[in-house]
Structures are given as C-alpha cells and as structure tokens.
C-alpha cells in the first residue's frame, strides 16, 4: 500500500508503515464487507470506477469519514495492476450533517408533540402534514386527513378559499375563528393562525 504525504497525514501512518498494510486494514470493520464486494466488481470489469463514502481507522484508532474514488489500473492486455485511490477527508462535513439531522429530528418531535394543532397545507389547500393534536381535534387518523383538501373539514369552505387566496400576499399571520367538522359529525369552534 503506497501513499503520498497527504494520505499519511490523514491516516496518521508513515509511508513505511502503510507499506506493511492492506487497504482493508484501514477500513472500519462494519464497512469492510461492502468494500470487498465493490472491489471484486471493479476487478471483474463490472465497474470501471468506485465512488463511495465510508469510514476509516487512523493509526490512533480514531474513526474518520472519507470520500473515496478508486480506479483499477490495467496493463495493455487488460490485466489488473493496482488500484489508484483518491481519498478526501469529509469527517467535518459528516459531523455537520449529523448535527443538522439531529436538530431537525428535535424540531420534528416538537411539532409532532405540540399541545396545539399544527398542519402544513399546500397553496391549493391539500393537507401535507398534521401533528397528533390536530388529528385529535377532528377525531381522525393520518390517512383520513393527509392528502385531503382542507376545505373538506371546514363548515364554511368559502372562508378557506378566501384565506388561501389572501395568504400569499399577507406579510403577517392571519388569525380567524371558524368551525371544523369532526369525524363523529360534531362541530368544533377553533381559532386558527395561518401564515406562509
């Protein structure tokens, strides 16, 4: 396993140390089976190039993320000679991505479990998402509500049509009182705040 200075710095090995290792020795254990199968496809000619993201172990035992591009170099008779591998450190980007994902999950949980009804509605009135409280207000389950038009659940559909027309031009939330039709046929008086 020959490597340049940048690879040595990334993996924290000297060039001589890397010469004693196989590429598999550097791949994080959970990513090794996938790595082997992909290399086999490259050698057989099923693939001409490998592009993937996976984890590597440094000499210190740290796990880093790398974006790998590998090409199999062949001689004139198409015999495999060696793999030319380019590896870019994407650990920081992976940490940022994970932090964003965790923040989005926290925000999603807050929306889902809020004590007031929340929903996202498309500009044509189609209901895209609603939280548990909104469904409980109407006595509906997810399939009975999502994808339907919001006017179906209002006692005054004309009011909703007017609201959907006004909202795109409004710079601030629009508050109004209306009556919602529940699954059991009852009517619930609610106050709604809507904004784009």
3D architecture notes:
- The chain has helices spanning 5-11, 15-19, 23-26, 32-44, 91-112, 132-138, 142-145, 157-166, and strands spanning 50-57, 63-74, 80-89, 119-121, 127-130, 174-181, 187-194.
- It is α+β, with helices and mostly antiparallel strands.
- The protein is elongated, with a radius of gyration of 28 Å.
- The protein starts with a helix and ends with a strand.
- The mean pLDDT is 90.
Overall pLDDT: 90
Unreliable sequence segments: none
Question: What general outline do the C-alpha atoms trace?
Answer: elongated
Total helical segments: 8
Radius of gyration: 28 Å
Largest sheet: 3 strands, antiparallel
Strand content: 25-35%
| Strands in their spatial order, largest beta sheet | 1-2-3
- The helicity comes to 25-40%
* N to C succession of SSEs: HHHHEEEHEEHHHEE
Structural class of the secondary elements?
alpha+beta
Distance between the termini: 57 Å
- Tell me the total number of β-strands: 7
